[in-house]
Specification:
The chain is an alpha+beta fold. It has two domains: 30 residues; 160 residues, Porin, CATH 2.40.160.20. Helix content is 16%, strand content 53%. The chain is built from two helices and ten strands; from the N terminus they run H-H-E-E-E-E-E-E-E-E-E-E. The strands form two sheets. An eight-stranded antiparallel β-barrel has the order 1-2-3-6-7-8-9-10. Strands 4-5 form a two-stranded antiparallel ribbon.
């Protein structure tokens, strides 16, 4: 009898606690979708013209800012012209929304990129020299949100790239200017907000 009574008391207390929590949630009008939606996966639709596949993940920090990380694969072809290298890049960026509320509105975004390239042309170097690159810059853009699920992100701005070679005897004039020096970064990405 004592075990059965103790079980009923514990069960009753649990039910009271659960109903109290439920009442508090209803009083505060929480919206689960607003709390949980902090991620966007995007694909840059302009990157294939530059010979790359480009994917980004944006993580919303608050109503004014987010952090975005990007992964790029460079195929070695730019505008149907072969370049003596292929490689991968990782970009990390901080996005500050100037208007609107994250994830939509005008924004300013400083970024830093690190890349590793493989030489696939011996005329470029007398040995198979791999090389590395760093880049930094600033883009200005606007992100649009459609149906509370889809995003369109348009951006552009300057970047500066510096290359470092395993083999010092490298003919850098065979590389396009975007690999070493000043260039422009631009994109038009579409994505899914979840």
């Amino acid at each position: 009898m004592k075990v059965k009574t103790l079980f009923l008391i514990i069960l009753t207390l649990k039910l009271i606690c659960l109903s109290n929590v439920s009442a508090q949630v209803n009083n505060h009008n929480y919206h689960i979708s607003e709390i949980d939606k902090k991620n966007i996966i995007k694909v840059n639709m302009l990157s294939p013209f530059m010979g790359t596949l480009s994917f980004q993940h944006e993580k919303i920090l608050n109503s004014e800012s987010s952090i975005q990380n990007g992964l790029y694969y460079f195929s070695g072809t730019i505008f149907n012209q072969q370049v003596p290298a292929r490689g991968v890049c990782f970009t990390t960026e901080y996005r500050y929304y100037l208007t609107g509320e994250a994830p939509q509105g005008l924004y300013l975004q400083p970024f830093f990129r690190i890349a590793r390239f493989w030489n696939n042309d011996l005329t470029f170097s007398n040995s198979n020299s791999d090389f590395y690159g760093t880049a930094f810059g600033l883009v200005f853009g606007k992100q649009f949100l459609f149906y509370d699920k889809f995003v369109l992100d348009i951006y552009g701005g300057p970047l500066f790239t510096k290359l470092f070679f395993d083999n010092k005897k490298v003919n850098t004039k065979d590389l396009p200017p975007m690999f070493n020096g000043y260039w422009i970064r631009a994109g038009l990405s579409i994505g899914y907000y979840f």
